[in-house]
Amino acid sequence: MPRFLTLADVCEQLQISSAQAYALVRSGELKAIQVGGRGQWRVEDVKLEEYIQESYAKAERMLAEGRRSHSAG
After folding, report:
1. Helix (H) or strand (E) holding 44
2. Which Pfam families does its entry note (predicted)?
3. 0.90 exceeded by the pTM?
């Protein structure tokens, strides 16, 4: 895999739309840089992996919170 991915590559990897990928970059959830005269977005492969790992961690926290709230009720 190349070091830098296009947003189209990110879309393919995460199986999301281009609008969703751009929203992740705009929000800062997915770190990216702009390159070239046309300012095309590129995502470093390690940043995509970091985003994926953080997404797993968020899901685990959410599930743990759900289990706690259900057991407390």
Report:
1. strand 40-44
2. HTH_17 (PF12728)
3. no
Tens-place pLDDT, residues 42-58: 999 999 999 999 999 99
> Rounded to whole angstroms, how far apart are CA atoms 66 and 73?
11
Distance CA 42, CA 61 (A): 29
Determine how β-strand 40-44 pairs with β-strand 33-35: antiparallel
Q: How far apart are alpha carbons 58 and 61 in whole angstroms? A: 5
SS3 content of the chain, % helix, strand, coil (to 5): 65, 15, 20
